[in-house]
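Review session, final week

We close the course with one last complete record, chosen because it touches almost every idea we covered. It is Precorrin-6A synthase (Deacetylating), a protein from Micromonospora tulbaghiae with 254 residues. Go through it on your own first, then we will talk.
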Amino acid sequence: MTRRLALVGLGPGDPDLVTAQAVRVLNEVDYFLVADKSEQHPGTADLIAMREAICARHVRKKWRLVTVPDPERDRTDPADYTGAVQTWHEARTVCWEQTLLDNPGDTAVLVWGDPALYDSSIRLAHRIVERGVVDVEVEIVPGLSSVQLLAARHGVVLNTIGGPITLTTGRRLLEDAASGDNLVVMLDGALTCRRLPDPAGWRIWWGANLGSAHEQLVAGHLDRVVDDIWARRAIAKRARGWVMDTYLLRRGGV
């Protein structure tokens, strides 16, 4: 029998930001699946607790959460980033697949933010379908992303008038900033914008742990606020063991 595998975007953490479609699907499936990274990163247990709080708020029936230990990604060879991620995805696929075999019924994977934006759940689900070990039909439920919440919190428009916007990561920022003037940066634990030439020419809108009780916001000219952002980021990470932040960078334009 074909089972339902729903990838449900929960938004950035605030139960008020979960969509009505997500609530409906959460109330239709048999259990929830979530990756557990706490063995390698103990502070991330908070992220499971936040998902549990969302379920407690919105699910009107008895519910069950199944955690899947998340394999550690090999970071020994930075030059082979793509290969390491693909190997990691394969290991995660096997873990998800075994969890589905051990837990019959329809499943919702509880995805932080939106499944289509810097998240691997869609790729893993497609791999499970291709392998054919578990008969599943994949459903994607979009969620509010931290990028949208960042813009809302700061009261800014992400794009300039008639202009493009580049979504990138910290590891690509210096390259992308050389050819772009309007960038949203995610996955940047090193706060790479500190290394941009001419920091006085850039403005930044930064947010950390958006949608949580520990949300932080800073905005201004990059050269004036970047040290404050770095200090706030370090404090947030020490306090909880993790920090999720994103920022908008703009050079000129409106």
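Two points worth writing down before the exam:
The chain has a mean pLDDT of 93.
The chain has two domains: 3-141, 146-250.
Good luck, everyone.
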